[in-house]
Fold this protein.
Amino acid sequence: MGVAIVRAEVVYREELAKIGAEDARVVCVEALPRGALHPFEAAHPDRFFPLGSVESAMVSMVEGLVTAGFRVFVCGLGDAAREARLPRLALAYLRVGASVVVPDIEDGPAELLGVPRLRIAAPSGVHEIRSVVRMAVRSGRPHHIRIGAGAPADVTADWTGADDGEIPPVVWGAGPESGEPADARVCLVSVGEDGTRLALAARERYAGVAHAHLVYVDDGHLAAAAGQMARHYDRFVVLGGWQGPQGVRQRLSRLMPGCAVFGVALEGELGAGVDQVLASVEGLRR
């Protein structure tokens, strides 16, 4: 029997409802398909607001809630029409201080990087989604949270500090600080659900390759991650992290000018992607 895939949107909704019972400041704004009941709505109906069709009014409402001290989460998952529009509207909600949860698509976060105090997260797995949502509530800072359709294995599951605080800039899946020996020359860098799935599959076939996993990819966290990784390796293959000049690979390349930083497109079957990753690793090892 195969391993059941936990839908990331279900993890997010259930965790937010749980946190809402612990913290009366948490507010959920989301549109669900007709007839569906959100766990947060069921548990805290007075703090659940359906995402309306008049977007400018919704942004003003969210701004008022944030100003009043609430921790507002705006989510566009599960509704195809909303998923198509929310990434374009995310900037407005983030600028007024809300956190936004969107599908993990290939759009680059270029405009987001200018939002004050913003944290950008691409959690992969149940543990990471829960940790990121809790940290967004605890910090009071706007978070742009990108999650995929299903939750692969957690790279951070064995990191003992994640329950007590923010996940660090780098979580080592193999190599320094992980207790697992790895190749001294090339390091995989995984970002997001698809990138993490590909990195883990590649390591199943070549256990010797190093693996650095990133959850937060705003400028502050990425600069800290680059500093740590460059102390140990000088050749990297980035898996995930969007396209364009502000993608994770491109920004890491600028942050580590003395290193070779390559990327592998996340397209097609997983097996073909693993073959491409291992070919890139072998080329960099020569």
About this structure: DSSP finds nine helices and 13 strands in the chain.
